[in-house]
Amino acid sequence: MDSTAIASLPSLWDEVSGTQPDPDLWVVIATLGAALAVVIPHGLWRVSRNAITIAHEGGHGLVALLTGRTLTGIRLHSDTSGLTVSRGKPHGIGMILTAAAGYTAPPLLGLGGAALLGGGRITLLLWVATALLLAMLVMIRNAYGALTMLVTGGLFVLVSWLAGPQVQAAFAYAVVWFLLIGGVRPAFELQAKRARGGAGDSDADQLSRLTHVPAGLWFFLFHAVSLCSLIGGGRWLLEM
Question: What is the mean pLDDT of residues 64-72?
Fold first, then answer.
């Protein structure tokens, strides 16, 4: 490796792991408004929900790997649904945690992002998110999913490498607000769909079969995680 490149590694790490100044309060409020604007209206939500699906399926995949399962592929569909396939025992704690990771992943990622932003680590958040997206891209097994990941990952790469500090800060806050707010809606949508007789093989139903705990209690867990993450993460983001 070139000696100049070696010498630049510590400075690069210092830049990534170091802290950046907080944006102005109006930027934080504006990004909150932007997140609400793409989550609440149904038409925009049908598009923006693709990003929540990425986090949802990524959560399944990451926990599958962490619990020793073999991740074989992830598919993202144009109707904003997704499928993560892993091999391993069809029961036990690994399968339970993998199944529970989907609806809890977006709000927990948002909470983790809020903690980083609360500590002024905007660059670190962007680089970690980019790395996770690129790693997930390798496991995508359909064309629509690959296109979605390329667009999303490409946006993060462009902002991380080319944008100025203020744009990076605004983008990072918008992403985290979106995960926190957007992470609340899917569980309510799924619960409403099940009440109409649909989604009979949802994550909550799979968890119910695996644990013999009623699906309603799993919905309670999903709601508790998403709402607590929103409250806690929102407090971190608004503390200037």
Answer: 96
Cα dist. 190→171, 194, 223 in Å? 29, 6, 11
- The gap from C-alpha 24 to its chain's centroid, in whole angstroms, comes to 25
Query: What integer pLDDT is reported at residue 5 of this predicted model?
Result: 46
Query: How far is Cα 54 from Cα 62, in angstroms, rounded to an integer?
Result: 12
C-alpha span between 31 and 168 (Å, rounded): 12
Torsion of Cα atoms, 45 then 110 then 63 then 72, to 10°: 40
Total-model pTM: 0.93
> What is the structure's pLDDT at 199?
73
Record the tokens describing residue 61, joined without a space: 């995949």
Residue 15 has pLDDT above 70, yes or no: no
- pLDDT tens for 207-235 read 999 999 999 999 999 999 999 999 999 99
What's the rounded Cα separation, in Å, for the pair 115 and 12? 22
- Which whole-number Å values give the CA distances from 187 to 30, 183, 206, in the listed order? 26, 8, 14
| CA distance linking residue 58 with residue 38, whole number of Å | 21
Give the pair of three-digit tokens for residue 6.
């070696």
